[in-house]
Design brief:
Blueprint: H1 4-10, E1 20-26, H2 29-35, E2 45-51, E3 70-80, H3 82-104, E4 108-111, E5 115-118, E6 121-133, E7 136-146, H4 164-168, H5 174-194, H6 196-204, E8 213-218, E9 221-230, E10 236-240, E11 243-247, E12 251-254
Parallel strand pairs: 1-2
Antiparallel strand pairs: 2-3, 3-7, 4-5, 5-6, 6-7, 8-9, 8-12, 9-10, 10-11
Helix pairs in contact: 1-5, 3-5, 3-6, 5-6
Amino acid sequence: MFNIEEFDIKLDTEVIGRSFIYCDEVDSTNSLLLNSREFNSHGTVILAEHQKHGRGRKNREWYSNSGQNLTFSILLKGEFNQEQVNLINLGAAISVAQALENLFQLDIELKWPNDVLIQKKKVCGILLESTSKGSVLSKIVVGIGINVNQPNFPGKFDIPPTSIRKEFHDEVSRERLLCEILNNFENNMDLSESNPQKILDDWRSRCKMLGEKVKVVEEEQTKYGIFQDIDTDGFMLLKVGEKIVKIHYGDVSIR
C-alpha cells in the first residue's frame, strides 16, 4: 500500500503533485488526465497501482505488478509548442535519472527518445500525450512507468527489463522515490524555460549512444547512421553518409 502521508511529508514542490490522486485501478493514468474534467488542474499527479490498459509508445502494452512499482501521470496545462514537448520529455527522463543517482548511486543511461536504463536494461519508460487547440498544445500529460520492487519479468522483450530493487539489492520506498522524481521534475520544468541548454547538456551527459552506429526504425522505414547529436529541440541528428538527417521519433538500437 502506498503511504500518502509519508509521500506528502517528503514532497517539496510548489505545484507538481500538490493535487495528488491515488487509485487502486484505472484503465490508463494518461487517458484519465487527458479526458477528465474533474482532475484538470495544472500539476495534478495520478498514481495507480494497476492500469488495465497501461501503454508505452506505439500503444505497446506496459505490464506492471500491482503494489510494487510506480505508474503515474503528470498533467501540464498552458500553451506549449512541439519543441517544448521534446524538452519536457528529456526533462522527465533526467528527473528519473537524477532520483536514481541521488538515492541509490546507480549508473543511469538515457536512451533516445524516452527510456531510462541501468546496465543496458530498461527500468523506466516515458510517454507524453497531448491535446491541442489549433496549432498550440493546451494540455500535456507525462506518463511515467518505473519498475521499482518487481522481482522478475516473465516474457520476451526487445530491451531486457530490470527493477531498482534488482539493481540496488534492497527494497525501495516508493513514496520517497516518487517525491524525489516530482521535486526534480518541477525544477527541470523551470529549467526547460529559463535554461533549455542545461536540459540538453544534462541529457547528453547520460546518453551513451552518441557517436555510435545505430539503426532507427520509424514505422515502416529503417535508417542506418551515426547518432551525431540532438538538436536544440531534442530531435535526433543522424549522420547518414555525408548528410545529417533529423529524426523526430523512432526505435533506436546499436548496430
